[in-house]
Amino acid sequence: NAGVMQNPRHLVRRRGQEARLRCSPMKGHSHVYWYRQLPEEGLKFMVYLQKENIIDESGMPKERFSAEFPKEGPSILRIQQVVRGDSAAYFCALRLANYNEQFFGPGTRLTVL
Amino acid sequence: AQKVTQAQTEISVVEKEDVTLDCVYETRDTTYYLFWYKQPPSGELVFLIRRNSFDEQNEISGRYSWNFQKSTSSFNFTITASQVVDSAVYFCALYNNAGNMLTFGGGTRLMVKP
């Protein structure tokens, strides 16, 4: 997984609760992407962050979803008041500076009951 | 807007057969990058290959080979002498610098039977 850790690997929430997904790229990497994979579908881009800045959030739903990548600590994808349709695998990826490959973490599988 | 189409949703072959996974893309950009990723049953995404739009040289790596044809906007992936461990979902993806993101196809599920 090229030095990208995600936790938790599995997360179960009831409708209306909050979900916090963490992505910890290897130290020194500052470009982080979040993607969502709905069951039996391909990955869809959500948001691209560099340290402390959101560069592109065009794929993020306008309500209930937010993302951050603080100067210290992991990137967090936060989903408020989860609904069943939020059940998916959420992947974080890092991009090496000057390269275009994105290397993915193992993903967090969110299940909303 | 960018688009990646993997018309084959599911392919089933018997071990040792060759199999080609198709990928067709759309983009208005002249500089872009194409990727293949593998997602085995365990769920992680494994990077396989990157191709630049200005490099149409095809590549062979062991049992894997890739055929990039800009004229038909295709980037096909062939596995020679398939093995059961090749069973996975394979995703083709497109990246351009302006887009800040990878655009994925819907994936092709490959099942290799013993």
Write the layout of secondary structure elements.
The complex is a heterodimer of chains A (113) and B (114).
Chain A: E1 4-7, E2 10-13, E3 19-25, E4 31-37, E5 43-50, E6 53-56, E7 65-68, E8 75-79, E9 88-95, E10 102-104, E11 108-112
Parallel strand pairs in A: 2-11
Antiparallel strand pairs in A: 1-3, 3-8, 4-5, 4-9, 5-6, 7-8, 9-10, 9-11
Chain B: E1 3-5, E2 10-14, E3 19-21, E4 24-26, E5 33-39, E6 46-52, E7 59-61, E8 64-69, E9 74-79, E10 88-95, E11 102-104, E12 108-113
Parallel strand pairs in B: 2-12
Antiparallel strand pairs in B: 1-4, 3-9, 5-6, 5-10, 7-8, 8-9, 10-11, 10-12
Ends apart, CA distance between termini of chain A:
29 Å
**Main interface pair?**
A-B, 25 and 20 residues
For this structure, the quaternary state is heterodimer
Any idea what the shape of chain B is? Answer: globular
Number of strands of chain A: 11
Which structural class best describes the helix and strand composition of chain A?
mainly beta
Q: Treating each run of at least 4 consecutive H or I residues as one helix, how many helices of chain B?
A: 0
Helix content of chain A: under 10%
How would you describe what is shown here?
The complex is a heterodimer of chains A (113) and B (114). With 113 residues, chain A is mainly β. Chain A has strands spanning 4-7, 10-13, 19-25, 31-37, 43-50, 53-56, 65-68, 75-79, 88-95, 102-104, 108-112. In chain A, strands 2, 4, 5, 6, 9, 10 and 11 form a 7-stranded mixed β-sheet that branches. Chain A is globular and about 40 Å long. Chain B has 114 residues and is an all-beta fold. Helix content of chain B is 0%, strand content 53%. Chain B is built from no helices and 12 strands. Chain B has strands at residues 3-5, 10-14, 19-21, 24-26, 33-39, 46-52, 59-61, 64-69, 74-79, 88-95, 102-104, 108-113. In chain B, the strands form 3 sheets. In chain B, strands 2, 5, 6, 10, 11 and 12 form a 6-stranded mixed β-sheet that branches. A 4-stranded antiparallel β-sheet of chain B has the order 3-9-8-7, with no helix packed on it. The mean pLDDT of chain B is 92. Chains A and B meet through strand 5, strand 9 and strand 10 of A and strand 5, strand 10 and strand 11 of B.
